[in-house]
Design brief:
heterodimer, A: 373 residues, mainly alpha, abc type-2 transporter like fold, four-stranded mixed sheet, B: 309 residues, alpha/beta, Rossmann fold, Alpha-Beta Plaits, 2 domains, six-stranded mixed sheet, four-stranded antiparallel sheet, 12 helices, 14 strands, 37% helix
Amino acid sequence: MSFYRIWAIARKEFIQILRDVRSLIMAFLFPIVLIFLFSYAITLDIKQIPTAIIDYSNTDYSRELIRRFTNSQYFVEKNRPTSEKELQSLIDYGKVKVGIVISPDFADGLNRGGASIQTITDGSDANTSQSTLAYTSLIVSEYNLSRLQNSLGARMATTPIQANVRFWYNPDLNSQNFLVPGLISLIMTILGSLLASLTIAREWERGTMELLISTPLKPVELALGKLLPYYLIGMVDLLLAAYIGIVVFGVPFTGNLWTLALFSTFFLMAALSIGYLISVTLKSQQAAFQISLLTSFLPGFLLSGFLFPISSMPFVIQAVSLIVPGRYFISALRGLFLKGSTLQQLLPEALALLLFGSVFALLAIIKFRKKIQ
Amino acid sequence: MTVYAVQVTNLRRQFGDFVAVNNVSFEVEKGEIFGFLGPNGAGKSTTIRMLCGLLLPSGGQGEVVGYDLMKESESIKTKIGYMSQKFSLYQTLTVEENLDFYAGIYLMNRDVHAQKKDEFFTQTELGKVRGRLVADLPVGARQLLALLCAIQHDPEMIFLDEPTAGVDPLARRYFWEQINHLSERNVTVFVTTHYLDEAEECDRIAMIFNGKLAAIGEPDVLKRTRFPGRVYSVQTDHPWDTADQLRTATGVADVTLFGSELHATLKPNVEVAAVLQSLPNHLRSTVTATELVPTLEDLFIALTREELQ
């Protein structure tokens, strides 16, 4: 094995990437766009839900309740319809997601101890409906408690059980804290598998491989030289994504930076090897791109725990997720960013990634033939 | 030490049912310029690819630069240079970057390579475009660059697959100067070509038709020994009528008009006097015939015909 040859290949590949606008976009612009898109647009915690309120009661009691709804950060009153029919039309046209109806006998009911309000949500948006249910219960029970305290005095009115739920590692349940580490994995999957899947196929397609395989170049030198630039780009993307996550979105980083670099190296080795194996096998850029989209990007997106928790997937899908490298990387990244995990705690993830990397790299190098078929 | 740079017996390559190279045997001597001729699809490129270790033969055996074709193709690759028929340098790299890249792959010494590049850039037109992307070069310059990439690491043997296709005559001259220069330094040159004037410059040539070797030897010897009949230049006052008459005459294989002069190729063992006798009187009186040495083109056409029959 000669480092001069590896360097010659790496240098050539690097020049080609820098002169190819498509590669540059994939390598640098795409990751940044992805981070901003996911972090701004897709927020998993629901706030400022557009709400319409019908207050048939129109009493101090009902107004107090409404104030509690609108003063929370969860609901924004958009409209004050006068009838349920009008409310329905607002929901149908998507002007509001939630309707709150306070009945005319609300105040009477309160005094008799049996008042109710009706909350209508747009069930076609399941996430928002779930949150509405939770927030409504919360606001109503706070209202109940404060009424009890008013009438009985604060000392008398206590709830028998108080559930103290603490959110460790992400106390504000900030979804960016949850998304950014996953995004790093997704970006590296795209970079590793998609870009690497094109490199050998491109040489066959453009006819440059014929000359390359007439030289004493060894398959392992070709693989290392080809993948080195993508590894470096991957590490730059890691820094870029981590920087944006930490500085722009305030995601905490509690782990060790070197451990992060180590895990990224392991994961890139796995992702690049898979991409390279596809490239070596298929010899056509189009086919390689599609296959790597199917075998790397989609599982990396859907089965890695990036958005959807693996523990709530059906058993078979959970088993399939075991062979998705992203699963281990995301788990390690969340540990490093949010939980301050140490390498020792993340050893199983490290070993899994290392195993993927070695197996696929070995397969790719064996599979590559310096022959025209 | 073997005197042969290439020695193959019954070399064969099939693609499915199609036999591209059909049990070909030949030798190439060290330091000679060996021309490989044949029509398109005759098996020239397939043969070259097998000799370079790019394509595994379906059968046969042989050695190239002292290494076994079947088992030691990676060793062969350390000693050869190859210029493929289809342009295969990097179009998004500059002229100099391509040279640097292949110098790196062949582990060339940095100083030696710098000197080589200087030499190339002062001697050829590539000096003016050394920083230009290969995609922007005309065909001639690209072919020249491909040649330099194949020879810059001083290989023992080079394989050139139609190196001068699409190259203008002046650049072709330079190509052949380089090829002769290499041969003087005892580098073996294996070259395929369509240009028969180029074939004349080879020490020995082989002609391949439909995957089979039809002739092999020195060009001048082949013209005399492998040519099936004799060629005559026929002078006459009535070239058109005479040509028509000769075409139908028995014993004549081929007639070509060159202005007022005819070239007539006779079938084997036919005397020219007998043919002229068969002409009508008014034509026969103005005719004189002198024997010509057949050109490689005559030979090539004759062998192609033979193959077709």
